[in-house]
Amino acid sequence: MEKGTSLTILLVLCLFLRPPGSHASVGYKPNIVLILADDLGIGDVGCYGNDTIRTPNIDRLAKEGVKLTQHIAAAPLCTPSRAAFLTGRYPIRSGMDASNDYRVIQWAGASGGLPSNETTFAKILQQQGYITGLIGKWHQGVNCESRNDYCHHPLNHGFDYFYGMPFSLMNDCQITQPPEKDRVVRTKFWLYTQTIGLAVLTLAIARLTGLVSVTWKIITCFAWFGFLFFASWFSSYGFIRYWDCIMMRNYEITEQPMVVERTTSLILREAISFIERNKHGPFLLFVSFLHVHTPLITTELFLGKSRYGLYGDNVEEMDWMVGRVLDAIDKKGLKNTTLTYFASDHGGFLEAREGKAQLGGWNGIYKGGKAMGGWEGGIRVPGIFRWPGVLPEDTVIDEPTSLMDIYPTVAHLAEGILPQDRVIDGQNLMPLLQGKVQHSEHEFLFHYCGLYLHAVRWHQKDSGALWKAHYTTPIFQPEGAGACYRSGACHCFGEDVTYHDPPLLFDLSSDPAETKPLSPATEPLFDTVISKIERAVQEHLRTLTPVPEQLSWYNHLWKPWLQPCCGTFPFCWCDKEDDSDQEIL
User: Can you give the pTM of this predicted structure?
Assistant: First the structure.
């Protein structure tokens, strides 16, 4: 045998006999399925310690793959967390967080949203030949200047196909639920309207009985003022189901308002259909569940089946949906060529209650929850990867990772190039997931609440310590309750927070529940650690550049000329789904 032929055979054998855990042995672009739950607490999942809510499909995913125990959201609320997930960047860099108390997009007809100059992972994969789809929740805005410019729409951010809700599920979407959006403001507006109406009626009666000499012209003007005031706020708040609770397929509105009872079936049908249509790949499918956000829309198949009330029912239904997506992947023979990922966008919603019934998630041993940017309960979430033959099975990694890491990880797998004109805060997780390195690339992670830096963690890799310094913490209501029950959610600044100087310091490696703050008297390295973190903060702040605030007061306002509408505004009503085809798959 000639020497050249022998060398060729040897090279071919080397390529095929590489260890299955080696990414170099893959030789193809995998399909990628990203599953993101809404408001799910890390303590709600069986493989993370819950023994009352059944999540066999998520648990199976962890058994067949890698489970991350320090998976961190970049923000404790939907809009900024998802912006960071999509772009691999802290939301402050794209303007997708707020200096006010409205830290998520408030209306489908608002002008704020993910800027067009941000490059999502979908756009990178699209450029690499992937078919890209988003099924479910978006909550990153729709329009900028006109009703049909779609500047923030998923199809303008790299997705070839979109079916789902451009806004977010909320109580207002279900007729039987009490109002949720701006409940206090709406109550005040009703009071003001009734006061004006009563004043007009009183003046009219007084004028008729001769008690006052006010002219009818003045009374009429006052009445018109009351009517205009009523119309100004009721035109938005009075029709929330029509303005916000809508479903779209690409640019077309399919339901306005949406029929929430069939949404589960529709989302599941669309996700499975996308997999079947694109089985020859490569494809990227982002399944963004409306579960387990209030009002906890649950089908009859799961109502009353859990041991944890309606919330438990909703979690178990979501787990079943995860199982159906996994089954679709497996039945098409795609299991070994698909990277599957599951996470939640942030921690569970502790303040979600109805009487004594808890309607929000459980964050396990971790303090705090949704809306709290510093405490672990608001930002530590489930994180699971599965890719048979490439990633190890039944493996647990206790290293700091971030939802922002998905961006460079999937870009790497698709052989894409990361944008070079901006800071990318995420890190490629493949070396860590495959066991090629022992430590995360993250030395520091910065925890924002709105635009305010609340906490910083430092992974001291040489000692194994995981330090976390809190500069600001929310004031719980009532004191010691662990959440902000009176206001409905914790705030980020002002009189509702406590500022710490020196910062509160914890070692999460020995105190993950953050119950024992350290001090110079109890921790010899206290000053050294705080000094190191302070320097890291200053370096981080130097990387920030001013950008337009997408969640400003003006961008939050409902703008009729931006309102998605399937008819002639304001007559927005349509139902283009076939009820005969809505059975659960």
Answer: 0.93
Q: What share of the chain is helix, strand, coil (3-state, %, to 5)?
A: 35, 20, 45
- Rounded (5°) CA angle 377-382-383: 135
The per-residue pLDDT for range 134-167, each reduced to its tens digit, is 999 999 999 999 999 999 999 999 999 999 999 9
Q: What is the pLDDT of residue 184?
A: 87
Q: Taking the CB of residue 478, how many other CB atoms lie within 10 A of it? A: 10
pLDDT in tens, 329-367: 999 999 999 999 999 999 999 999 988 889 999 999 999
pLDDT at 579: 61
Q: Which of 23, 47, 71, 78 is catalytic?
A: 78
Which one of 14, 23, 47, 139 is the catalytic residue? 139
Amino acid (one-letter) located at 439: H
DSSP string, 457-489: EEEETTTTEEEEEEEEEE--BSTTSSSBTTTSS
78 is catalytic: yes
| SS3 of residue 515 by DSSP | coil
Residues facing residue 472 across a β-bridge: 499
Cα→Cα distances 340→162, 285, 366, 531, 542, Å: 19, 10, 26, 40, 36
Q: Is 465 exposed, middle or buried (0-12, 13-18, 19+ CB in 10 A)?
A: middle
Which residue type is seen at 172?
A: D
Could you confirm whether 245 is annotated as catalytic? no
- Classified as helix, coil or strand, 538 is helix
Flag residues of the chain having pLDDT under 70.
Answer: 1-25, 579-585
Strand intervals (E) in 73-183:
131-137, 161-165
